[in-house]
């Protein structure tokens, strides 16, 4: 049972679960979720075994677990695919396995397993009042397929297999965002997500093609762990904008990350992706799929930073990456300030934090980026699952309060009355919540832990350690613009996080629904607890050595740093970044609490008046959706409907076809009327017949029936014959 | 011109003339009588050829039986065919042409026969025993008994056939 | 003394006249008469050849006897046929016995 073999087996259980659920057990909810969770559990077990083997192997970066097979024969050699467990993929495997397992278990409770099926519920729409999800088994099939895609991506040793996993996840994202396909908003969101990430994927594919043509291979070890290849790529000119081949390839590949990890300008799909069920948001759009984009960028760090060494100015590619990352971090954080929906806030928060990681890659902070990737996965998944629990509680509260309202006002019963109490209270709007700490204590505690981790609460949360490392790296390497931008974003992060916590849990309930909310089941709260543990403890494996004077080795740095050819140096200790990160974190949290602690029911957002029209701009997300719609979507529709369909397809192509058809018909009728009928039918057919008939009619006159005439004829003919034979030719 | 030749010429002319009249007379009874005359002329010619028995047979059978039969047939079919009206059909010219052609052809054919110019040959040896020889030849196993028997069968068949054919068709009421 | 050719010419003439009678006459009985003339011509021919070419062999006369027999039977059957047709169709004009036509 070598680690290599176990690694090959890791993605297998989920895909088998997917196949079995789809083909066989889709009618049984219990069997389906057992299969899915069981499969994920097996994968988790295998992943933990491999992880343990990985961390107990010294110098894993020099001797990773690698195994490959011939896949596509091409000439003498073959294209090989295989698995590679080096330190980066080992820790990614770790957090992917844990978060996916937690989310799988959570989904059981989230979709109300154990509750009866409400006859008013229809497949394609979320359940109204807490009945079990009608498409329960389908959900587990999809997330199993997704888990397969992600695990494949993580363990792959070459770009092609990574791309396969990438696209599988894109498909599952599409399917799961639009899981409740009865909702029009979900349908639009699923298409938007797919198309937007596709834009990034196209450039990524160009990058892959260029890379393959330049190096002849797509294997990580052969490209990224190979001095000569990297050097030659860095030296070769690409002919575009003066960038080297490595630079251009890196830029193209990075565009894939921009799409997949929802960086500006391709960020527009992630907030809309919140249409999917909350486990989907947690898994795909917080912990794993968007992380895959960053994982990819971190994996290709050697290529992105080819031609750069520590202390040198950044290459063009790195500057682009850093800019996009830092800009996105600040940009998304500002939008998050003005959002009312609990999941939207978290969505923009995800975009912002991914921007942190991307910026870290851009400035060359390899280990910091990987560290934040790991910690973010845990606490963001926790936050999303927590928000799901809150929403569930709110919906139960809604159902309970509408029943109460119906009971309290018997005269106003009837569909209109019940719906009136029910319809326009959005269970996801934070301004309808409040005081939920009393109703949902476990959710409250875990959510606070996650939120503080996001805000970077010093020392006790994982987010602090990872975020601080990025800021420290930015500062000490002199990238002040990036440092200031990220610091500002950190301040805003803390602010909106506390805003969210305050509005949701603190204070007093603002609606009946909030008043009647209750805690969620164990299947939902246990995963929250597990993730909360990681949100706290995961940071302690990466405490910088400079803090403890070298007594506690920074295990994370040494482990993950071994993935690169040269061990990256740790950032030296400096007070400024530390103070900045502590300051913005605590300051932001305090400010958020102060501003939002006394928001009454029905009151507007306290930040609206001071910020004025800026608040409106933020609320409208800077108008990017509208801009893209005007600039790209509508022209595309016009092109499709008018140009392609009407003009080319119906006009030109159908026109040609019709013209050909008409010509053929005309030719046919010409042939028919001018040749077939007169000549063939008339002359040859009927003509022959009538000639024969005429001849026959003439000839039959010979047979008069009169014997004497026959005799005469016979005699004359015989006479002629005889005279010929005897006289003319004797 | 010997006496025989003169007799021959007279008989020949008589025969031919009668034959012509046979085929041209509209009145059938006349025609059949002229037929008899023609047959008689042929009998005379047989005598000239020293085939006396055949002359007798000619008279007895042809004139005595066949010609009488023909006269019977004429009388039995008389009602319809009146003696007036055309007695030749539309193609008489074709018939005449054919007859002339055949005549010419036959003459041409005869001119090829080497013995055509020969005059009277020598006398027949055993002229008195001709008849006996004829009789014997007709029953001699090595000679002509088979044609003789076949001819008798033919006559039998013709007799039966003629009876059957000439029977009146419907006999149901007149059965008794 | 009488050259063979005279007999032959006579027979040919008789035959031709008979032929004319067969082909040209309307009445069926008249046609039969023509046939008898033709047969007579044949007989004459036969006997003439016998006498002039091979008088020693009696074959000529024997053949002539056969011809007599045949002529007689043929006349009988032919007249029977004519009578039968006369009964059926009340006509003996050869032109009107024309069922074997188109």
Topology record:
The complex is a heterotrimer of chains A (730), B (176) and C (102).
Chain A: H1 3-9, H2 12-25, H3 29-55, E1 65-74, E2 77-85, H4 87-110, H5 136-155, H6 159-177, H7 184-215, H8 220-224, H9 227-235, H10 245-260, H11 269-272, H12 278-287, H13 289-299, H14 301-304, H15 316-337, H16 342-362, H17 366-408, H18 415-422, H19 436-439, H20 441-455, H21 462-476, H22 480-505, H23 512-515, H24 522-537, H25 555-561, H26 575-596, H27 608-611, H28 613-619, H29 624-700, H30 707-728
Antiparallel strand pairs in A: 1-2
Helix pairs in contact in A: 1-3, 2-3, 2-5, 3-4, 3-5, 4-5, 4-12, 4-17, 4-24, 5-6, 6-7, 7-10, 10-13, 10-15, 12-17, 13-16, 13-17, 15-16, 15-22, 15-28, 16-17, 16-22, 17-18, 17-20, 17-21, 17-24, 17-25, 20-22, 20-24, 21-22, 21-26, 22-26
Chain B: H1 3-24, H2 28-48, H3 52-76, H4 92-112, H5 130-139, H6 145-166
Helix pairs in contact in B: 1-2, 2-3
Chain C: H1 4-24, H2 28-53, H3 59-89
Helix pairs in contact in C: 1-2, 2-3
- Which parts of chain C are unreliable, with pLDDT below 50 for 5 consecutive residues or more? none
Structural class of chain C: mainly alpha
- Total count of helical runs of at least 4 residues of chain B: 6
Q: Show the largest interface.
A: B-C, 93 and 76 residues
Keywords:
heterotrimer; A: 730 residues; mainly alpha; C: 102 residues; Helix Hairpins; elongated
Question: Could you describe the 3D structure shown?
Answer:
- The complex is a heterotrimer of chains A (730), B (176) and C (102).
- By secondary structure, chain A is mainly α.
- Helix content of chain A is 71%, strand content 3%.
- A two-stranded antiparallel sheet of chain A has the order 1-2.
- In chain A, strand 1 and strand 2 form a beta hairpin.
- Chain A starts with a helix and ends with a helix.
- Helix content of chain B is 69%, strand content 0%.
- Chain B is an all-alpha fold and 176 residues long.
- The model of chain B has no long low-confidence stretch (mean pLDDT 85).
- Among the domains of chain B are: 1-81, Up-down Bundle (Four Helix Bundle (Hemerythrin (Met), subunit A)), CATH 1.20.120.1200; 128-168.
- Chain C is mostly helical and 102 residues long.
- Chain C has 3 helices and no strands.
- Chain C has helices at residues 4-24, 28-53, 59-89.
- The chains are: A mainly alpha (730), B mainly alpha (176), C mainly alpha (102).
- At the B-C interface, helix 1, helix 2, helix 3, helix 4 and helix 5 of B face helix 1, helix 2 and helix 3 of C.
């Amino acid at each position: 049972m070598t680690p290599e073999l176990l690694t090959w087996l890791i993605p297998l259980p989920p895909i088998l679960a997917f196949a079995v659920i789809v083909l066989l057990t889709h009618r049984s909810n219990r069997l389906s979720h057992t299969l899915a969770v069981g499969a994920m559990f097996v994968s988790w077990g295998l992943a933990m075994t491999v992880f343990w083997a990985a961390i107990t192997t010294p110098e894993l970066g020099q001797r990773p677990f690698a195994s490959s097979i011939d896949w596509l024969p091409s000439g003498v050699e073959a294209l090989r695919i295989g698995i590679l467990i080096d330190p980066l993929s080992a820790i990614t495997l770790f957090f992917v396995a844990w978060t996916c397992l937690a989310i799988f278990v959570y989904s059981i409770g989230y979709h109300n397993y154990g509750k009866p099926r409400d006859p008013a519920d229809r497949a394609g729409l979320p359940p109204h009042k807490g009945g079990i999800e009608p498409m329960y088994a389908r959900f587990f099939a999809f997330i199993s397929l997704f888990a397969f895609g992600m695990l494949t991506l993580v363990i792959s040793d070459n770009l092609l297999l990574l791309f396969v996993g990438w696209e599988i996840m894109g498909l599952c994202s599409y399917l799961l965002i639009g899981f409740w396909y009865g909702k029009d908003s979900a349908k639009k969101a699923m298409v938007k997500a797919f198309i937007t990430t596709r834009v990034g994927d196209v450039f990524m594919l160009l990058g892959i093609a260029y890379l393959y043509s330049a190096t002849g291979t797509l294997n990580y070890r052969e490209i990224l762990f190979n001095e000569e290849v990297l050097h030659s790529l860095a030296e070769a000119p690409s002919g575009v904008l003066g960038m080297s081949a490595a630079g251009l390839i890196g830029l193209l590949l990075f565009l894939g990350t921009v799409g997949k990890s929802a960086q500006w300008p391709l960020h527009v799909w992630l907030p809309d992706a919140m249409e999917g069920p909350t486990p989907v948001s947690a898994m795909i759009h917080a912990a794993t799929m968007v992380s895959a984009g960053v994982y990819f960028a971190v994996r290709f760090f050697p290529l992105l930073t080819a031609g750069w060494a520590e202390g040198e100015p950044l290459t063009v590619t790195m500057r682009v990456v850093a800019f996009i990352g830092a800009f996105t971090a600040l940009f998304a954080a500002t939008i998050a300030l003005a959002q009312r929906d609990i999941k939207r806030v978290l969505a923009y928060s995800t975009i912002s934090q991914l921007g942190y990681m991307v910026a870290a890659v851009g400035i060359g902070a390899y280990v910091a980026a990987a560290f934040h990737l790991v910690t973010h996965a845990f606490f963001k998944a926790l936050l999303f699952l927590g928000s799901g629990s809150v929403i569930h509680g709110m919906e139960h509260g809604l159902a309970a309060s509408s029943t109460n309202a119906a009971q309290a006002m018997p005269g106003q019963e009837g569909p209109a009355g019940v719906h009136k109490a029910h319809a326009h209270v959005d269970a996801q709007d934070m301004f309808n919540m409040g005081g939920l700490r009393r109703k949902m204590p476990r959710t409250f505690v875990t959510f606070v832990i996650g939120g503080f981790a996001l805000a970077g609460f010093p020392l006790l949360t994982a987010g602090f350690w990872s975020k601080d490392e990025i800021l420290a790296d930015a500062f000490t390497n002199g990238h002040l613009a990036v440092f200031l931008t990220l610091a500002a974003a950190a301040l805003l992060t803390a602010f909106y996080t506390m805003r969210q916590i305050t509005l949701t849990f603190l204070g007093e309930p603002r609606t009946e629904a909030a008043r009647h909310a209750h805690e969620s089941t164990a299947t939902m709260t246990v995963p929250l607890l597990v993730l909360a543990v990681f949100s706290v403890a995961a940071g302690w494996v990466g405490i910088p050595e400079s803090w403890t004077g070298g007594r506690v080795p920074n295990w994370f740095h040494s482990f993950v740093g071994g993935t690169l050819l040269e061990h990256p140096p740790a950032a030296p200790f400096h007070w400024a970044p530390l103070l900045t990160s502590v300051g913005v974190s605590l300051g932001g949290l305090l400010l958020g609490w102060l501003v939002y602690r006394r928001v009454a029911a029905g009151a507007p957002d306290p930040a609206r008046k001071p910020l004025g029209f800026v608040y409106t701009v933020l609320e409208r997300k800077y108008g990017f959706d509208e801009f893209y719609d005007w600039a790209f979507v509508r022209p595309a529709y016009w092109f499709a409907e008018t140009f392609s369909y009407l003009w080319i397809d119906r006009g030109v192509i159908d026109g040609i076809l019709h013209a050909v058809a008409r010509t053929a018909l005309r030719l046919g009728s010409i042939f028919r009327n001018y040749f077939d009928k007169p000549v063939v039918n008339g002359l040859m057919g009927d003509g022959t017949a009538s000639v024969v008939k005429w001849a026959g009619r003439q000839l039959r006159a010979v047979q008069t029936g009169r014997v004497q005439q026959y005799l005469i004829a016979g005699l004359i003919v015989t006479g002629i014959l005889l005279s010929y034979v005897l006289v003319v030719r004797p | 011109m010997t006496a025989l030749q003169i007799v021959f010429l007279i008989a020949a002319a008589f025969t031919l003339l009668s034959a012509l009249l046979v085929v041209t007379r509209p009145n059938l009874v006349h025609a059949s009588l002229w037929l008899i005359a023609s047959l008689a002329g042929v009998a005379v010619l047989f005598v000239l050829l020293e085939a006396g028995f055949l002359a007798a047979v000619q008279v007895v059978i042809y004139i005595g039986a066949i010609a009488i039969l023909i006269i019977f047939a004429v009388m039995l079919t008389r009602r319809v065919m009146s003696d007036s009206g055309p007695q030749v059909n539309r193609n008489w010219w074709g018939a005449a042409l054919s007859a002339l052609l055949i005549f010419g052809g036959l003459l041409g054919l005869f001119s090829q026969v080497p013995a055509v110019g020969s005059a009277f040959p020598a006398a027949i040896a055993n002229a008195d025993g001709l008849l006996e020889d004829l009789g014997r030849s007709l029953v001699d196993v090595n000679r002509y008994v088979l044609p003789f028997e076949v001819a008798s069968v033919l006559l039998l068949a013709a007799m039966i056939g003629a009876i059957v054919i000439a029977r009146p068709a419907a006999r149901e009421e007149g059965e008794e | 003394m009488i050259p063979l050719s005279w007999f032959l010419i006579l027979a040919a003439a008789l035959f031709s006249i008979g032929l004319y009678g067969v082909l040209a006459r309307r009445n069926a009985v008249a046609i039969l008469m023509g046939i008898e003339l033709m047969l007579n011509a044949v007989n004459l021919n036969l006997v003439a050849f016998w006498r002039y070419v091979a008088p020693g062999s009696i074959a000529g006369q024997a053949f002539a006897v056969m011809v007599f027999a045949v002529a007689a039977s043929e006349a009988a059957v032919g007249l029977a046929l004519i009578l039968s047709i006369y009964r059926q169709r009340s006509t003996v004009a050869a032109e009107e016995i024309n069922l074997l036509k188109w």
